[in-house]
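User
Here is a favour to ask of a fellow structure person. I am asking you to supply a protein in sequence and structure-token form. Please set it down just below, with no commentary around it:

Assistant
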Amino acid sequence: MSSLVKEDLAKRLFGPRRQRLHEFIEVEGAGAQRYYLCAAVTKSKEVEICMVKHWRVDREEKYEIIEKWFLKDLEMIDGKEADTDNPYFDMHFHKVYNMEAYSCASKYTFARTLNKLNATYLKKDFKIVNFDDTYLNDDSIWSSSNRDFIVVMRVCFYAFNLLCLSLCRFS
């Protein structure tokens, strides 16, 4: 479902503006409309973060950018509590914006995306606080993109346990 929304956003909203959508997450909003927090790169290589309102008129999907910021103006992203599974975070620009992501996983996905875009395009001192570093870094063996490694590790662990049990003498 989210890949279809991402494709639709890229085609209808960001494509005509000559921007490349890198990531989006659903954030909580009021009413029947949905809201997405998006990270896109402009043709001039500026990273734009925007809040998009999504609603449906008859059978047509409508999108509107209701707020826009630049990554270069983002001073800090605060995950609120690193040791708690919660979807809340703050983005500190000239003003602090309180956000509630659809899930804690999507909050981390967006923070990872901003961190990567900063490393690629800006290389500025970018503060990410109150996030668990284990899940924030993609190179971690525990990240969701390395599920195959975790499965192999579990299989090896169980095989080792079976081997140990089979070699043990019962008295």
Q: What stands out?
A: The two ends are 57 Å apart (CA to CA). The chain has a mean pLDDT of 87. Residues 51 and 79 are 18 Å apart (CA to CA).
